[in-house]
Amino acid sequence: MKIPLPEHKKLVHQMSLDVRWGDMDAMGHVNNAVYFRYMESVRIAWMTAVGADPQPRGEGPVIVNAFCSFLRQIEYPARLLLKLYVSDPARTTFETWTTIEREDQPGVLYAEGGATTIWVDFPKQKAMPLPDWMREAVS
């Protein structure tokens, strides 16, 4: 089932990466769990670019929910294009959405997924309001 991305999403980052031989499973295609690593890679690259690195003694982002729709099998070798979108900033959370394509087949989705991110005060182990600069990045 294809999950529709919200109309009001904002493209914030994209990156390419190569499928590694070890990403495949016994069936000869990329293992389902690896798709979550791909989505994590583009999400972390963007968060680092905007200065949202988690500070263990401070605050930062935590994923509280993640999902993926597997639309087509990906096999080695392949170079992937991952696009990261953001949407729906709330008091303490925002949504991220990722699409995965093969670079040699632009516009053909192989997977799409997302994650709900919550902003956390790590020492207190409590949600806290999104900082203004982060709210601006996801609005």
UniProtKB/TrEMBL annotation:
GO terms for molecular function: fatty acyl-CoA hydrolase activity. InterPro entries: 4-hydroxybenzoyl-CoA_TE, HotDog_dom_sf. Transmembrane segments: none annotated. Gene3D superfamilies: Hotdog Thioesterase (3.10.129.10). It comes from the Bacteria. This is Thioesterase.
